[in-house]
Each structure stands twice: as structure tokens, then as C-alpha cells.
Amino acid sequence: VEARAVAVGLAAGRVDEAFLRRLQHSIQLCAERSRQRSRAALRQARRHDHDLPTLLGERAGNGRLADWHQRLLRQTQLVRVYSLQAYDTGRLAQAQREHAAILAALQARRAGDAAAALELHLRTSCGNVLAAYA
After folding, report:
1. pTM of the model as a whole
2. Which of 16, 21, 39, 69 lies at 20 to 30 Å from 58 by C-alpha?
């Protein structure tokens, strides 16, 4: 969903400087809160981490799709493990690199690279969730 929304958003000019600043700010806050290693910071990091797919999904400019996407995100968030013990620093660093790659591709207005970076991030996230339940 995010990859398609980004492609549509780029083509329609909805990936503008204001959006990129908002996305970058959210990514930075997620990284900062993740490093703090407290329960309160973890809750904040989760909110900022949730901002990434939300903001990307909105780029399609389709309210119905964005609404459906939000429901899907809420369901997938329910199965994720959010505890201080589960927040592995290696995984956090990997997620932050993936977020940076997505942002860089969007800043360069490269839809194909953004889609590839998103796909990698989603595969990695899915693998992390499945590993937590193995």
C-alpha cells in the first residue's frame, strides 16, 4: 500500500518539502526515543514509528484507501512485540537505516528506489515479528 501511495503521491506532487520535513522529523523522533530505553520513550517511539506508514499511505490522496490502510496498520501493530527486552539495538539500527533509505529516495523523488526501500523494510519488519513468535 505504501509503495503504491508513494508512487501516486510523487506523480501528483504530494511528496513536497513540507511532507518530507514532517517525515524526517518523525523518523528522527523515533530514533531518539528508541535510544532512551524507557517505557515512556518506547511508547513515544512506537507512535513515531507508526507515523511512517501512515504518512506514506496518505500520499495516495485517496481517503478510502488511507482509512483501509489505517485499519490494517492497527491490526498488524497488535501482533508486534513492544517491550524493552524486545527492542534489540541491532534491529533498531537496521530499521533506522531503512527509514533513512526510504526518506532519501523520496527526497530524490525516485519512486522505484522508494518502493524498493519500503519493500525491504516491510520484509525485515515481518521477519522480526515472526522471529519474536518462533
Report:
1. 0.84
2. 39
CA nearest neighbour of 50 among 34, 27, 32: 27
Q: Whose grid coordinates read 522505484?
A: 112
Grid coordinates representing 59? 500520499
* Distance, CA of 26 to CA of 28 (rounded, Å): 5
Quick one: cell of 32?
A: 531518539
**What is the tens place of the pLDDT at every residue in 62-100?**
999 889 888 888 777 765 555 555 566 677 788 889 999
pLDDT tens by residue, 10-35 = 999 999 999 999 999 999 998 888 88
Q: Are 125 and 91 in contact (CB under 8 A)?
A: no
Residue 118 · residue 110 · CB < 8 Å: no
Nearest to 103, CA basis, from 93, 90, 117:
117
- Rounded to whole angstroms, the Cα distance separating 49 from 47 reads 5
User: Would you call 60 helix, strand, or coil by DSSP?
Assistant: coil
One-letter identity of residue 84: L
